[in-house]
Amino acid sequence: MTDLIRKIINQIQDLINVIRQLIGKEPLIPVPKPDPKPAPIPPTPTPPPVVADSPFFFGKQKTLVLVSYFDGLRALDLEKDLDWLKSKGVDGIRLYLNFSYPPNRPWDFLF
């Protein structure tokens, strides 16, 4: 038993000596150094160019923005809705007057 204790004490003393040798020296795991030059900031993406076969409107080349407007017969304020779409840059509207789904409403059969 005493031999085992002596062996453990010797190992502890060896560890203490190793620690004493490491104090004041370089760390075992190197600390990463900051990069002297940071990476350049990537450029902001540019929108895709307008292709040559795009349509011209009022002398300018433009890609159209079109939307579908469903259930126009039951719209509470159709003019207000259309003005709002125009303010958002919508160029054209596909208007569905009666958006019927089962069961069909009888007043939708007028069209």
**Rough outline:** elongated
β-strand amount: 5-15%
Element pattern in H and E: HEEEHE
What is the terminal separation in angstroms?
Answer: 104 Å
| Biggest sheet, spatial arrangement of strands | 1-2
Structure, explained:
The protein is of the alpha+beta class and 111 residues long. It has a domain at 56-110. Helices cover 28% and strands 11% of the residues. It has two helices and four strands. The strands form two sheets. Strands 1-2 form a two-stranded antiparallel sheet. The protein has a two-stranded parallel sheet with strand order 3-4. The N and C termini lie far apart (104 Å). The relative contact order is 0.09.
Features:
111 residues; alpha+beta; two-stranded antiparallel ribbon; two-stranded parallel ribbon; elongated
Summarize this, please?
With 111 residues, this protein is an alpha+beta fold. The chain has helices at residues 2-22, 78-87, and strands at residues 56-57, 60-61, 66-69, 92-95.
SSE order and pairing:
Layout: H1 2-22, E1 56-57, E2 60-61, E3 66-69, H2 78-87, E4 92-95
Parallel strand pairs: 3-4
Antiparallel strand pairs: 1-2
